[in-house]
Amino acid sequence: GAVVSQHPSWVICKSGTSVKIECRSLDFQATTMFWYRQFPKQSLMLMATSNEGSKATYEQGVEKDKFLINHASLTLSTLTVTSAHPEDSSFYICSARDGAPQETQYFGPGTRLLVL
Amino acid sequence: DAKTTQPTSMDCAEGRAANLPCNHSTISGNEYVYWYRQIHSQGPQYIIHGLKNNETNEMASLIITEDRKSSTLILPHATLRDTAVYYCIVTYNNNDMRFGAGTRLTVKP
């Protein structure tokens, strides 16, 4: 099956700093990538959808100026958490889809962010 | 909000079949049923999906009722490594994956 990687797998940072998370599709071209967030003991929540070369579409309640998404190529999307605060501590997961909307989304292993 | 209803938790004996139900009574004619699972602290793993017909792959079988208002994911011979949260998701264009609470399946020795 298709493989999606994320880097880093975990990160600890100080409050006020910015953190960048990378999401890569390793063996397919991802025309669309998705970013999710998962708090402890909760389900995944979609944050934003990004298409290669276009601006991301953010879900209601997600601050686009705080969570910067760049989908610069067909194999790479980045999520930057700007001026991170402790409440941003969460498990961030990306997924990628190849081609048509009916194609399956494949998920990365996730990045655990802890903001002190 | 998720369009599906799943039991909160289920147990299954190792080596036996695990049958995970999902209700999606408001499903539209062009919406697919997707199943993913999430093992603790990992990203979700795709299992199977279907539209109308029953589907089978190397991981599982998906049985969809004729009226498409419910479905069952079957793991034919559950192992301890199948312990996970299983999510049933209904979506038309795969742009709108709404994860509900899922079913926490525990496979016991």
Helix-strand string of chain B:
EEEEEEEEE
Structural class of chain B: mainly beta
Structural class of chain A: mainly beta
Radius of gyration of chain A: 13 Å
SSE arrangement of chain A, N to C: EEEEEEEEEEE
* Spatial sequence of strands, sheet with the most strands of chain B: 1-9-8-3-4
The most extensive interface, with participating residues per chain, is: A-B, 26 and 23 residues
Radius of gyration of chain B: 13 Å
Amount of helix of chain A:
under 10%
What is the terminal separation of chain A in angstroms?
Answer: 37 Å
C-alpha geometry of chain B = globular
How many helical stretches of chain B? Answer: 0
Determine the mean pLDDT of chain B: 93
Describe the sheet with the most strands of chain B.
5 strands, mixed
Brief sketch in words of this structure:
The complex is a heterodimer of chains A (116) and B (109). Chain A has strands spanning 4-7, 10-13, 19-25, 32-38, 45-51, 57-58, 67-73, 76-81, 90-97, 105-107, 111-115. By secondary structure, chain A is mainly β.
